[in-house]
Amino acid sequence: MPGTTLIALPSSGRLATGTLTAEAERVLDGHGLAGEFRAVLGGEEPKARRLSTALAAVGADPGEAVLLGDSRQDLLAAQAVGMGFVLVTGHGFLPPAQVLYGAGGQSSLVAAGLDPGGLLIGTGAYEGPPGH
After folding, report:
1. CA 9, 12, 15: angle at the middle one, nearest 5?
2. Are residues 18 and 92 in contact, defined by beta-carbon separation less than 8 angstroms?
3. 3-state secondary structure of 10
């Protein structure tokens, strides 16, 4: 599922993704990971609704959660449910300035990617275009 946002909630055994559920389950199974999740929330519903469902499933407050994403749609969905957002570059189609433009005056964290252990690498703050 390259270029796809995944929200893994290991303590709950749930995974949320923009990929359709059947395809996500097939990919997880192909990598021997299907048994690691009790539920897969696929992209059949709007992203903000999937985020809300995933958060409610584990009793998490949106203000305490952060979405790692690579697109403007990820940013807008995170904002719609009140989550924080970290832009992970290198997988999306637009540069950070275009994805984050108009993010409500908030600074946003930008990461160059994830290491094999899932930790953010190359992080920095994006404060908006020069002069704003």
Report:
1. 40
2. no
3. coil
If you ran DSSP here, which 8-state letter would residue 62 be given? G
Cα–Cα distance list, 118 to 6, 36, 65, 80, 113 (Å): 12, 16, 16, 25, 9
CA gyration radius for the chain?
A: 15
Going by the DSSP 8-state scheme, the letter that residue 2 receives in this structure is T
pTM, 2 dp: 0.64
3-class SS string, 49-63: HHHHHHHHHHCCCHH
104-117 pLDDT, tens digit per residue, is: 645 567 777 777 77
Contacts of 47 (CB under 8 A, 6+ apart): 5, 18, 73, 74, 77
